[in-house]
Amino acid sequence: MLRVAISRAVRRCSTNACSVKCKRLEGKVAIVTGSTAGIGFCIAKRLAQEGAKVMISSRKESNVKKAVDELKHAKLQVEGTVCHVEKSADRKNLFDKTKANFGGLDILVPNAAVSPALCTVLETTEEMWDKIFNVNLKATFLLMKESLPFLKCSKSPSITIVTSVAAYQPIDIVGAYSVSKTALTGLCKATAEDLACDRIRVNCVAPGVVKTKFSKALYESETAQRAAVSNISMGRMGMPDEIASVAAFLASDDASYITGESIVVAGGMKSRL
């Protein structure tokens, strides 16, 4: 039934390089972290194309400015601020600035993540492990917790956590990253039950191998790309826009009865039954 709902939503809201043909998020306000490039940027862009007012954020001011300028040039309603998600003051500023600029918050998309080195789980140093879990898991938990005073004032609040197909089938060369994404899936399940009474939906979108700078090591050589694609039923890598469309669906009223779920967008890579 979940696949049917997604299929219908996609048919109703087709997208191409030029336009998005629906406005499901008109009047809503969104925060997307790690949103100046790759999947995060495309999610922010898609939410804005569907009518949302979006707060862009990442660690570097120059990247924030570039992303905001590009989206404003496309006549989208966006603002931006520097936010290193590990820093409490930056997170507070992110929420305060969103309220000041847009009046509230309806959609939170914790997307910021790191994977500082290519190595298996047991090759991961303690320092690397702490960095991965502080950014990918702890910061997401804190963003969710700190967003509640704002989301509880929304008529249709939602949180969409960006995880990974690696949450279900760990990828050896990003072992600790994979484990952090598994933990995020558990966080989704636990918080969805807790927040249902406040009408706040919590879901995950789990990308497969998507062609971004973040995943460059998986496709930068011909050998690596062949290995990556060999595990994908559709025989190709995904594009960031294909993740963004699912994130927009989960934030919309088309997904009003979906919470505690994870939608894998991975071209048929093995994940689960």
From TrEMBL:
Assigned protein family: Belongs to the short-chain dehydrogenases/reductases (SDR) family.
Entry-linked SUPFAM superfamilies = NAD(P)-binding Rossmann-fold domains (SSF51735)
Q: Pfam families from the entry? A: adh_short_C2
Task: State the name under which the record lists this protein.
Answer: Dehydrogenase/reductase SDR family member 4
Q: Sorted alphabetically, which keywords does the UniProt record give? A: Oxidoreductase
Organism of origin: Harpegnathos saltator
In the record, what terms sit under GO molecular function? carbonyl reductase (NADPH) activity
